[in-house]
Every structure is written in C-alpha cells, then in structure tokens.
C-alpha cells in the first residue's frame, strides 16, 4: 500500500473530499474550509496551502499552511495547522512525515520559519519544534506556540 502526500491546489479533484475531511476532523463549519480551500486553488498568493495524506486512495491524514491560525500573534507566519492522522494509522511515523513535508513546502515557498499553535506538550519537541510562548484565541482560550527553523537545501 502506497502512502503519499498531495496538495489540493495541484489536485483540485480532491477539493470536496478535502473540505469534508478537514471539517469533520476539526469539527469546524464546512463553509469555512470550503471557502478557504476552494479559493486557495486559484489564488496568486503563495498561501494558504492544504495537503492530504493518502494511503492508496483513502485519506488518512492532513495539514495546512496558512497565514494565521486564529491566534493573537499576527506578527508570526506562516502557520502549520490542522495536522491530523487517523487513529488507526497513528504510531507509524505518519505525523512526522506530515511535519517534514510541511517544513519542506514552507521552505520551498521561501519562508525561514514555520509556526504552530497547540495544547500538546512533548509531541512537537521531538520533531525540531521549539516552544516560544503563549498566544490567545478570539474565543478566549490560549494555546502554546511553537517555532521551527526551515533549513533545507
């Protein structure tokens, strides 16, 4: 079984499946993902970008690279967001593959650093991410902010 990561921008036939996947996994109104992802396909801007991990033709994971992840630190970007691996596929290194893919994609787009916000402690540190502080969300909660240097040849 082949596992690969595809960009929805380059594979627009995955638009509807991708929107459904992100919306379902993150319990966010489908309209938000539909608007963002459909417009990401045709924009001249480098961001946002949305990626799906496929095992054969089944979606088993995802992530995005966006300009802001609903967090107060508007000075930091881009952000890796919506990292998800199906529970049945966890503990196989697929999250690490998605993180590495995201770092390479952001570097290819010319960025020197990549950020993410999370409530997890201990996971991202294993994959070159450094905790840099707390950020605040519009709905009143806060999250840990991580930074990763992008050094790829």
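-> sequence recovered:
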């Amino acid at each position: 079984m082949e596992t690969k990561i595809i960009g929805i921008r380059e594979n627009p036939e995955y638009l509807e499946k991708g929107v459904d996947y992100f919306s379902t996994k993150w319990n966010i109104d489908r309209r938000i993902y539909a608007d963002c992802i459909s417009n990401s396909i045709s924009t001249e801007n480098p961001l946002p970008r949305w990626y799906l991990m496929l095992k054969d033709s089944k979606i088993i994971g995802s992530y995005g690279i966006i300009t802001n992840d609903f967090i107060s630190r508007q000075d930091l970007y881009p952000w890796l967001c919506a990292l998800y691996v199906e529970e049945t596929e966890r503990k196989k290194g697929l999250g690490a593959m998605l993180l590495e893919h995201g770092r390479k994609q952001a570097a290819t787009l010319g960025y020197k650093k990549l950020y993410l916000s999370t409530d997890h402690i201990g996971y991202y540190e294993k994959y070159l991410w450094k905790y840099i502080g707390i950020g605040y969300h519009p709905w009143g909660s806060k999250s840990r902010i991580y930074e990763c240097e992008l050094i790829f040849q």
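The mean pLDDT is 95.
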